[in-house]
Amino acid sequence: MITVNDKGTYLYAVTLDTDLACPEGLAGVAGAEVRAIRHAGLVAYVSTVPLEQFGAEPLRESMEDLDWLGETARAHHRVVEAVAEGKPTAPVRLVTVYSDDEQIRGLLSRRHDDFVEVLSRIADRQEWGVKAYVDLASAPPSEERATGAGGPGAAYLRRRQESIRGREEAWRQAAARAERIHDALSSFAIASRRHRAQDPQLSGRKELMILNGAYLVEHDRGEEFTRLVEELRGPGVDLEITGPWAPYSFTDLADPAEPEVLGDG
Amino acid sequence: MVEDPRGAALAREGRLPPERVALVDLLDRLLAGGVVVSGDLVLSIADIDLVRISVRALIMSVRECETTPDDGMRR
Question: Rounded distance, CA B32 to CA B27, Å?
Fold first, then answer.
């Protein structure tokens, strides 16, 4: 049973312990003050939060409340951004709540080497997001056909056949195109990752999202990266770029030596 | 002609608030990215649950918008 007085420690991000002070006057989730826990050469950025809001049960409901979710996500993001301004920062997954500070210290000791490894991997690097959309309804003619043999008549027939094969082919082409764009961006980036394509209801666009990629790029090559994205734009494919982000998509910790049991079924 | 997926028309007309679209990009990262730690947590919601739940919240909110009157000024 959770009472009004029960508190938890909400974790936003972890960095190496440097001389830089904790950003002052920073408000986190639920308006709570952000403070730093220094331990084992690392710093955890946390807030004390009421468990009547951040306990497992209340959260099940809150996560369905878009206003709450949006506010909490933005607050979490704001803290991560403020911290990442000054030094390499490993953001932590949304709503990661411990029962007290002592457990956070335990985490910093236990996973020290893993955090250090992640932080060195993302140092001086930023994440960019690139989303690609195609409008399948007005898919452009395939490039191969233009060089095909035969006159305009044969070309017409081929075009008809293609329209019969229709959507399936358009899908295949879109997928291949997404693959090419992702390959080009990945070979420029230090690391890359594909997120699940967003539902049109969520992306807010009627076109099909064929790529929702995240790319880890050297801090000083951001401009070059955005130019590359511009170059990859082509007829029928629209590219949307977001970022730079703190390296949210590139902070996988190594698997713990002994797998810890997850509490949920 | 297949009916538009819910929300698509809304989005096409530019009535999907931009802050909501950006929120989707943010949630991609906050719910599928970031350091995942386990053990000692107060929370024990599986990751997949979080993603499913929040996506459902977003979709439901789009549907709510959709059912408001076109002029949106009636109240």
Answer: 8
